[in-house]
Amino acid sequence: MAVRPIVMADQPILRQKAEPVARITPALRRLIDDMVETMRAAEGIGLAAPQVGESLRVIVVEVPEDEEVPGSGVLYVVINPEIVEASPEIVEGVEGCLSIPGWYGWVPRARSVTVRGLNRDGRRVRIRAEGLVARVFQHEIDHLDGILFPDRITDPTRIWRVQPAREAVPEPVPADVSPRSRH
Ligand code: ZN
């Protein structure tokens, strides 16, 4: 396993539609292991393959265990993920992105989704997610279609930059903004 460099938002690969995975090979499993290690090293809660430079439809999601967050404390690896159902109820929540360091915004997402795809062994999986975990799935699947979270924000007052702590005086931010909202 290895931590890979994270691709920044100005790179074209993050604007491409990623290719479906045709076969689960040892190289693909290495990619998945590296994605998990890279996500954890960056203290992210999700990562999509294009963020480590591979234009393939693979995502990993892992929200740290919290008894108030359904689906937390579980590592999800999904190959060729698809949202097959989404709740009509839309909720706003704070998101960040490992490819857009320092920026956060209020992003509207479906409150719950059902995701279908393959796990790392090539078996079909169907995951019903709600709340934060559903949000992360939607954020990561967007990456596979070249969509970044600021694209989902129409009101420019709903997105802001957090200055690094050592620089000047930090801007006031909502209390619920933490590095744990980076995907
Ligand atoms: Zn992201």
TrEMBL record:
The active site is at 140. Fe cation binds at residues 97, 139, 143. Binds 1 Fe(2+) ion. It catalyses: N-terminal N-formyl-L-methionyl-[peptide] + H2O = N-terminal L-methionyl-[peptide] + formate. It comes from the Bacteria. The keyword Metal-binding applies. CDD domains: Pep_deformylase. GO terms for molecular function: metal ion binding; peptide deformylase activity. Belongs to the polypeptide deformylase family. This is Peptide deformylase.
